[in-house]
Every structure is written in structure tokens, then in C-alpha cells.
Design brief:
By secondary structure, this protein is of the alpha/beta class. It has helices spanning 15-22, 28-31, 43-55, 93-103, 110-130, 162-179, 245-252, 299-307, 323-327, 337-349, 366-372, 374-392, 447-470, 480-497, 505-520, 526-546, 558-582, 606-609; strands at 35-39, 58-62, 80-81, 155-156, 183-186, 189-197, 200-208, 214-218, 221-224, 257-258, 263-269, 292-296, 320-321, 361-364, 401-410, 413-414, 427-429, 503-504, 547-548, 611-616, 625-630. Strand 6 and strand 7 form a beta hairpin. The structure holds flavin-adenine dinucleotide (FAD). Flavin-adenine dinucleotide is lined by residues 39-45, 62-65, 71-73, 75-80, 162-163, 190-191, 225-228, 237-238, 242-243, 245-246, 282, 284, 408-409, 431-433, 445-448, 451.
């Protein structure tokens, strides 16, 4: 099967404008005849729902939290990229495009990434107009800071709460439309399936999380904006509720899943302390603007620190190895996340790790405090320092933070074309849930940019093209496909509720997480991945025999909710392993130990792997079929990525 990404022809810089002109339009009077379902109201979904309603479509929006305000997007700390060049430091749309393609290790589409860079500038204007309080310089202009993989300052931020402020902007736009009657908002409602009629997505099946009521909803198109699946690893920086269910159920109805093995492991998180944890905490990448990453120069010194025989503040300057600055003098501490993570792991593997577990390195602000003063550092990063202090009981103004990589973001997701439509007509996917723009590694501050680009600036154009094609005739919610899909959802719920074994769903989730981290985490080998596949299959079979799910359907039942999500993770985990096994090269966040340069950097194999993998579901416990979308590079020359 040939996957058509529908990238417009013509020069890179003109593709999006040409495409916008060529897309079909829906006239204003007809827009109100179309119903659009938006699942997920984080930044991508909130922006999409508000913008489509503003255009005149009738929107039904869904989220599983009690308010769109609680979407995981709220957790985003460090900032959002845009090629505004306010700093006059050499930035441009082309440079943001280039950095993103290179940062993603040449595994993203040129056309998509250029469009992302192009609309990035509009996002900032849109958000400022909404009242998002971006940080400003003394003179009143918007301030910028730097993020990894870039040598310019293009990251707009609102202290360490950028996601929260952006979400407030999208949420107020959404609320305006709810008030205007153009968006009907369904909170505490979980989508559990997609309804396909004659090959097109025409509805969804949901469960009300408070009453257990299972319902169907019809629409001319369905947009999944349901976030990432990092929680397949159990421990991650993601909110506890993040899951893959919506995307996975769509996958089982025919939507291809792309690059599932591309996981971002963020270098600066508070290290794991033991099995009691269910969540990890990010220390934003913005901290690497001023924080310096280091490890003790020798194993002996590290041992002394671990045993408490030496205090970190007593370690002499010449006994510290600022390994990122040493190895990558051009980018220093601001190398991309995959590079920084691998180097941190290398220190720990060499025995130079610190902290009681030995699984951490330092992030040190002593120099910045000396240079700028404690107050200036507090003004920039105060909430992050407070968070660190509250979790570790160590004062980061007085001693370095201890950090270690943790699962943070998933570049994989549902395959979409340039219009953000999956291979199932009428089914779209936006934000972290799709695979589209980040290749094998996402640069910091680019997820918010992509989610808002998709929601505010891409889908409002591209959706109309499809709607105009199918016409405004009402969707028949009585079509038997709706009842049939609903029945299948109810049967699955009953199957889960019939599990009365002895092991909790959490135990299965934790075990799956261990397998994924050990064998499909920061470093992957053929042998390890093959082992992981067997382990996951055994764990999944055991889940359906021995798990315990308490309570009933007709009540608030978090045990049931969790069971459904973990069951999906148990299937997704195997696909991630298959994808990682198939991709025998290293690229970005996917590091195959067998494929590295003499210096230990990721070694790509462009001849055999310059493609997007797109997996087709073939039935329960059946191997999935791999389709390949070849990546064509006409503007950027593929080279070994270097940040030296
Ligand atoms: C700690 C942290 C810090 C970060 N900081 C940054 C940063 O500084 N800059 C940056 O660019 N990126 C950052 N990121 C990444 C970024 O926050 C996310 O990628 C982005 O916010 C995802 O937005 P989204 O709209 O795609 O999904 P989400 O915000 O996760 O929203 C998902 C929505 O889908 C709904 N949903 C999910 N499944 C279902 C279902 N089955 N039925 C109904 N509703 C469903 C949820 O209720 C929610 O409304 C950070 C991530 C983390 C974890």
C-alpha cells in the first residue's frame, strides 16, 4: 500500500500558502450544518474546538477530566518556540525548520516541519491577543530564552508555567464558544471507540465516568486530540491520566500507528527513589540555560559522594566533569534531549553517578547565582526550584540539583497526512497524539508549538476540504454501525469487570513499565527487544486471567477506567517493541546499541530506514503489517547530526 502524505508540490516556502488556496471551502451558511467531534481539550483539542466553533461548525468536545482546564498540557513548564527573531540573533522560519528537522534526526517530513515553523509566529500573536502573560523584558517586549538543539533564543515563556497560561488562553476561547452554544462540552466522558460507516469515521462511543452510561455520538468528522502515551512506561513525567486508549481503539478500527518506538527521554527529571513512586517530576529544560550539568571526574569521588564521605559543595572545580560542555563545545548544556540523556546515562553506567542510588548527575546553578544573583535566578525559575525543594528536601540555591533522564513525550502516534487526516477518511489526529512533526526526537518547547499550530492554524483550513467533499447531509446516528460498536464496547466493559483474580491492574502496569524501560528505553538491543516481546505477551495473557477489577459499571469506577487503559498499554507495548526491533538503525530517541558511531553517538542508516513506519492492525494477537512512507529530502542534506 502506498501511503500518500499529500504534501503539496512546489517550493518549500510556498507549499502551505498554495495548499490553503487549493483547499475546498465550506460557505459560511453551510458550516452550521456540520457536526464535528473533538476528543480531547488540551492545547491541541481546545484550540481546535474553539477555532472550528468560531468558524461556525457545531462542535461536540470531550475530555475525561472534570474540566478542560485539567488537561495534561497544563504541566508544560519551559516555553513555546516561535521564529519571531525578536532577539535579532539570526533566527528565521528556515532556521527553525532546519533545527527541527536536524533535531528529529532527519526522520520527519520537510513539508510539515516547514509549515510548523511558518505558523509558529502566528501562534504567539494569537496567544498574546488572548491575554497570555508571556514574560517580558524590562522595555516591555516579549522575552525569549534558549532551548536545546538551537543556537538562538526563540522560546517564549511564562515563568515555569507556560502550558498553564497557554491552556487558560485556549480554555477562555473554548468557553466563549460553549457560552455561544457552538460547543457542547462533555466532561468526565471517556471515548472508548470510533464508529466507522462505509469506511468513514462518523462517530464515537463514550462512557460517562460518573454514571457508567455508554452512549454514541455522531458527527461529520472525528478529531482525536488525546495526547501522548508515555505512561506505557508506568513511570513518566506525564499526568497520571495520560493514556493511549483513544488512539489505540482507533488503530484497531483501521488507523495506522506510526513510529511507536520513538519515545523522548528527558534528561533533567528528579531521579527515581524507589518502587513506591507512581509519577516522576520534570525539571524544565529551560534550567539548562543557566544550570551546568556535571558528574564527578572519577568513580572514587562519586563513591565518596554517595557514601556521604564528601559533600558536593566541597568537591573542587578540577574534580568536576562538565561532560556536555566538554564533549559538545558549540551547544554545551543545550544539546538536544536525546544527546543529553544518553550522556547522563553513560556517566551512571561508568560508575560516576551520584545520590544515594548512584543513578543521577548534577545540574548546578552556582555559577549563575554568582553571575546574576539569587534573586535573578529566582525570578526566572522560582517555581521549579520550589518544586525541587518540596520533593527532595534539598535547597537547589545552595547545592546542585540531582537529575536523571525519564520518559517524557512520545513522538510516535497515529499516522496523519499533511491535512492531519489519518488513513481513515474523516478521522483526524492532532497534537501529541499524532506522529507528525518531530521525527525521532522532539526539540524542547516544540510540542506546545505543534499542538497549537494543529489546533489554531492547520485544522481550521484542512477540515473544510473534507467536509466540502462529503457534503452537509446530516449523519445518520441510527445507522446499525453505531449500535454494533456500542455493544462491543459494553461487552469489553463487562469482560473487564468479570476479572476477579488476585493481582491489581497497577501491578501489571508497573511490570509492563519495568519491561519497557529495561528493554525499550534509553538503549535497545535486538536480544533485549526479543526478550521484551515474549515478556509482554506473557504479561498480557496473565492480565486477562489474574487481574482484579473491582466495582460496577454504573458508578465512578477508577479501577475499571484504569483496567481498560492498561489493557491497551499491554497491546501498544508489544507494537513499540516490534517497531524498535524492525528499526535496526539508531536515530534520535531510538538508540540501538548495535548501531553507534565510534564516539557512541546514534548512527542512522538512511539507505534502509529513511521512512515513517505505519503499522496496520490485523486482529487480536496477530502480527501487525508494516507500511512505509518514504521520507523525501529536497531541501536539507542528510548528515550525521553533530552538536560539537
Ligand atoms: C511535565 C511536562 C512539561 C512539559 N513542558 C513542555 C514545554 O515547556 N514546552 C513544550 O513545548 N512542551 C512541553 N511538554 C509537552 C507538552 O506539554 C505536551 O506534549 C502537550 O501539552 C500535549 O498537548 P495535547 O493537547 O496534545 O494533549 P493533552 O494536553 O494531554 O490533552 C489530552 C486531552 O485528551 C483528553 N483525552 C485523552 N484520552 C481521552 C479519551 N479516551 N476520551 C476523552 N478524552 C480523552 C484529555 O482529557 C485531555 O483533554 C511538557 C510535558 C510534560 C509532561
Amino acid at each position: 500500500m502506498i501511503l500518500d502524505a499529500k504534501i503539496p508540490k512546489g517550493p518549500l516556502a510556498e507549499k502551505w500558502s498554495t495548499h490553503k488556496f487549493n483547499l475546498k471551502l465550506v460557505n459560511p451558511a453551510n458550516k452550521r450544518k456540520y457536526d464535528v467531534i473533538v476528543v480531547g481539550t488540551g492545547l491541541a483539542g481546545g484550540a481546535a474546538a474553539a477555532s472550528l466553533a468560531e468558524l461556525g461548525y457545531n462542535v461536540k468536545a470531550f475530555c475525561f477530566q472534570d474540566s478542560p482546564r485539567r488537561a495534561h498540557s497544563i504541566a508544560a513548564q519551559g516555553g513555546i518556540n516561535a521564529a519571531k527573531n525578536y532577539r535579532n540573533d539570526g533566527d528565521s522560519v528556515y532556521r527553525l525548520f532546519y533545527d527541527t528537522i536536524k533535531g528529529g534526526d532527519y526522520r520527519a517530513r520537510e513539508g510539515n516541519v516547514y509549515r510548523l515553523a511558518e505558523v509558529s509566529v502566528n501562534i504567539i500573536d494569537q496567544c498574546v491577543a488572548q491575554g497570555v502573560p508571556f514574560a517580558r523584558e524590562y522595555g516591555g517586549l516579549l522575552d525569549n530564552r534558549s532551548f536545546g538543539g538551537a543556537q538562538v533564543s526563540r522560546t517564549f515563556y511564562a515563568r515555569g508555567q507556560t502550558g498553564q497560561q497557554l491552556l487558560l488562553g485556549a480554555y477562555s476561547a473554548l468557553n466563549r464558544q460553549i457560552n455561544a452554544g457552538k460547543v457542547k462540552m462533555y466532561t468526565r466522558t471517556e471515548m472508548l471507540d470510533v464508529v466507522i460507516v462505509d469506511g468513514k469515521a462518523q462517530g464515537i462511543v463514550t462512557r460517562n465516568l460518573e454514571t457508567g452510561k455508554v452512549e454514541t455520538h455522531s458527527g461529520h468528522a472525528v478529531l482525536l486530540c488525546t495526547g501522548g502515551y508515555g505512561n506505557v512506561f508506568y513511570l513518566s513525567t506525564n499526568a497520571m491520566g495520560c493514556n493511549v486508549t483513544a488512539a489505540w481503539r482507533a488503530h484497531k478500527r483501521g488507523a495506522f500507528f506510526s513510529n511507536p518506538c520513538y519515545t523522548q527521554i528527558h534528561p533533567t527529571c528528579i531521579p527515581v527513589t524507589g518502587d513506591h513512586q507512581s509519577k516522576l517530576t520534570l525539571m524544565s529544560e529551560s534550567l539548562r540555560n543557566d544550570g551546568r550539568v556535571w558528574a564527578p571526574k572519577t568513580v572514587e569521588l562519586a563513591q565518596k559522594l554517595r557514601k556521604g564521605e564528601l559533600k558536593v559543595t566541597d568537591l573542587k572545580e578540577e574534580d568536576r566533569d562538565y561532560f556536555l560542555e566538554r564533549k559538545y563545545p558549540s551547544f554545551g548544556n543545550l544539546v538536544p534531549r536525546d544527546v543529553a540523556s544518553r550522556n547522563g546515562k553513560e556517566m551512571v553506567d561508568e560508575g560516576r553517578g551520584v545520590g544515594s542510588t548512584g543513578v543521577a548527575v548534577f545540574l548546578d546553578f552556582a555559577d549563575a547565582i554568582k553571575r546574576l544573583g539569587e534573586d535573578a535566578v529566582r525570578a526566572k525559575y522560582g517555581n521549579l526550584f520550589d518544586m525541587y525543594y518540596q520533593i527532595t528536601d534539598e535547597n537547589p540555591y545552595k547545592q546542585p540539583m540531582r537529575i536523571y533522564p525519564a520518559v517524557h513525550y512520545t513522538m510516535g502516534g497515529l499516522w496523519v497526512d499533511y491535512n492531519l487526516m489519518t488513513n481513515v477518511p474523516g478521522l483526524y489526529c492532532l497534537g501529541e497524539a499524532n506522529f507528525s512533526d518531530h521525527g525521532a526526537n522532539r526539540l524542547g518547547a516544540s510540542a506546545l508549538m505543534q499542538g497549537l499550530a494543529d489546533g489554531y492554524f492547520v485544522i481550521p483550513y484542512t477540515l473544510g476540504d473534507y467536509l466540502a467533499t462529503i457534503g452537509p447531509k446530516p449523519i445518520d446516528g441510527k445507522n446499525p454501525a453505531f449500535e454494533k460498536t456500542k455493544k462491543e464496547v459494553e461487552e469489553r466493559i463487562q469482560k473487564l469487570l468479570s476479572l476477579r483474580g488476585t493481582k491489581t491492574v497497577d501491578e501489571y502496569h508497573r511490570e509492563l513499565g519495568h519491561i519497557m524501560w529495561e528493554y525499550c528505553g534509553m538503549a535497545r538491543t535486538e536480544e533485549g527487544l526479543k526478550k521484551a516481546k515474549g515478556l509482554i505477551q506473557t504479561l498480557r495473557a496473565d492480565f486477562w486471567k489474574n487481574a482484579i477489577v473491582l466495582g460496577e459499571n454504573e458508578e465512578l469506577n477508577q479501577s475499571l477506567e484504569k483496567a481498560g487503559r492498561v489493557a491497551d498499554f499491554l497491546e501498544l507495548g508489544e507494537l513499540m517493541v516490534d517497531d524498535a526491533l524492525m528499526r535496526k538503525e539508531s536515530c534520535g530517541g531510538h538508540f540501538r546499541v548495535e548501531s553507534q558511531t565510534p564516539e557512541g553517538e546514534a548512527l542512522r542508516d538512511d539507505e534502509h530506514f529513511a521512512f515513517v513506519s505505519a503499522w496496520e492492525y490485523k486482529g487480536d494477537n496477530q502480527p501487525e503489517e508494516l507500511h512505509k512512507e518514504e521520507l523525501v529530502f529536497e531541501n536539507v542534506h542528510l548528515t550525521q547530526r553533530s552538536y560539537k
